[in-house]
Design goal:
Membrane topology: Multi-pass membrane protein
Subcellular location: Cell membrane
Helix content: 25-40%
Keywords: Cell membrane, Membrane, Transmembrane, Transmembrane helix
Pfam families: SURF1
InterPro entries: Surf1/Shy1 (IPR002994)
Structural class: alpha/beta
Radius of gyration: 31 Å
Strand content: 15-25%
Number of helices: 5
């Protein structure tokens, strides 16, 4: 009497729950991460076409906290805050052009009231390192435009001076003995002895910065599709496959090996 054919467990039997659960978790994670990257792409696109420079100033604390990542919806947002100047931490940022003349931004951090962190403040523009007026000291109140930290990849080749090629927070920390906000403010009122720092002196944003989030979203969704495909292949090959068909194929192979 031939042996009874092997019966495989039902696809929803408890022995397969772990595989199903893993597939669901990976798929859900891929979908959520893709949606998150898509939302980031939409936020950056909306920020790129929205001009906040002429709206009313809001308190700095409503836009960003000392340890917060930069909120993309507040690029160029006028903010107001009070604090105390840190004149010994003043530094310059090179490569800022005004009326065809390349010069420097003069930046002095301010310890923001109610926090232990400092906000870099662009006080104005100067054509020469030798024409920088003395930094103010003491308490202050200020209004200005909030900007994200720069990060074009340009390297500071001379770390012994007080000039940076870009306003990158990691580089600015070399001049300050305390934490810095992940942003900076361009003062709306010009400091005495300096020309006004304009928003059009900002370096152009990389074109790939926003579209990169869209590519990341597509990659996550592609990964989710790959998870579904691998789960389906496993289901077809290892769970729903007909064991009799495998046995018949093996028998045919044995018959072919018998010598004539």
């Amino acid at each position: 009497m031939p042996p009874a054919p092997e019966r495989r467990p039902h696809p929803l039997s408890p022995r397969y729950w772990g595989v199903h659960l893993l597939a669901v978790v990976l798929l859900a994670a891929a979908v959520m991460l893709g949606v998150w990257q898509l939302d980031a792409w939409k936020t950056k696109r909306e920020a790129a076409v929205r001009d906040l420079t002429t709206v009313s100033a809001i308190p700095l604390a409503k836009a960003i906290g000392p340890d917060d990542p930069f909120p993309g919806q507040y690029v160029g947002q006028p903010v107001s805050f009070a604090g105390r100047w840190l004149p010994k931490s003043t530094f310059l940022v090179s490569g800022r052009e005004r009326a065809g003349v390349e010069g420097y931004w003069v930046v002095t951090p301010v310890t923001v009231d109610g926090t232990k962190s400092a906000m870099p403040v662009v006080r104005g523009w100067t054509p020469s390192q030798s024409s920088v007026p003395a930094a103010p000291s003491g308490p202050m109140t200020l209004k200005g435009w909030l900007q994200p930290a720069e990060g074009t990849g340009e390297v500071d080749t001379d770390t012994t001076d007080d000039v940076l090629p870009q306003l990158r927070i990691a580089d600015a920390l070399h001049f300050v003995d305390q934490d810095l906000y992940g942003a900076y403010v361009i003062a709306s009122d010009t400091d005495h002895g300096l020309d006004r720092a304009e928003l059009d002196q900002l370096p152009p944003a990389p074109r790939f910065s926003a579209i990169r989030n869209l590519f990341y979203a597509i990659e996550w969704w592609f990964f989710g599709g790959f998870v579904v495909f691998m789960w389906w292949r496993w289901l077809m090959d290892d769970v729903l496959a007909d064991p009799d068909a495998d046995g018949e194929a093996a028998d045919e192979g044995d018959e072919d090996d018998v010598p004539a």
